[in-house]
Write a structure and sequence with these properties.
Length: 229
């Protein structure tokens, strides 16, 4: 596997960028043990990650994993059970013949069918909630805005602009191992922000140091402070 084009994201950073809790992300992607009727059982990961088995020093995932995490987090925020999410991933993978189906553009439409089917398959209750309610919940969870910043190519998702239509910041697995960078110059936002703090929040000075515009400095600073908030 060509790591330089895959992206490398430690789990704690991935959680920060998608707005999820690190402990939850670890459970989703590494699985976890739990007690059931007095016995210890294991819940398996939702999917096998891109960098699994690569013998890397830290717990890391790839770019496609990162994008799928955004979708899983959206499901969880709306109270969807992990079993239903797992069934949805499996059903969508089979339907689209794709390893990372939730960020497949087709999921925006076909998902409306797959999601209710996954609920019924998982719970065994065809009347758990009526069909209209299922569709309403799904459309609330999977919004076009979740896809707005994703740029697609022939091989699927290739870049992510986390600010949507404002394409000032990008995560591109082919640049800086996928860390957020200022799109026009490829400088990591955290590097610019660290300099901003070191220079006592003097944006003009930081712009001179990196030979970039003040607008680029502002974009990086705003992005990092939004993450921190």
């Amino acid at each position: 596997m060509e790591l330089i084009k895959t992206g490398i994201y430690p789990l704690h950073q991935a959680a920060r960028w998608v707005g999820a809790k690190p402990r939850a992300v670890r459970r989703w992607l590494r699985g976890y043990g739990r007690k059931c009727h007095g016995e210890r059982v294991r819940s398996e990961p939702l999917w096998h990650t891109q960098l699994e088995g690569q013998d890397l020093p830290d717990e890391v995932i790839g770019f496609r994993d990162l994008l799928e995490l955004r979708m899983v987090d959206a499901f969880v925020r709306y109270g969807v059970d992990l079993k239903v999410i797992c069934a949805t991933v499996d059903a969508a993978s089979s339907s689209f013949r794709a390893d990372y189906p939730l960020t497949n553009q087709k999921f925006l439409t076909d998902g409306k069918r797959i999601f209710p089917d996954a609920i019924e398959k998982t719970t065994g209750e065809s009347r758990m909630i009526d069909v209209l309610r299922k569709q309403f919940v799904f459309s609330d969870i999977i919004k076009p805005s979740l896809y707005a910043g994703i740029e697609y190519g022939n091989g699927g998702a290739r870049r992510w602009f986390p600010l949507g239509k404002r394409k000032t910041i990008v995560l591109d697995p082919g640049l800086q191992f996928g860390t957020p960078v200022v799109a026009e110059v490829g400088i990591p936002t955290d590097t610019i922000y660290a300099s901003f703090l070191a220079e006592e929040r003097d944006k003009a000075m930081v712009a001179r140091i990196f030979d970039i515009t003040s607008r680029m400095v502002t974009a990086a600073v705003d992005f990092e402070e939004k993450l921190a908030a």
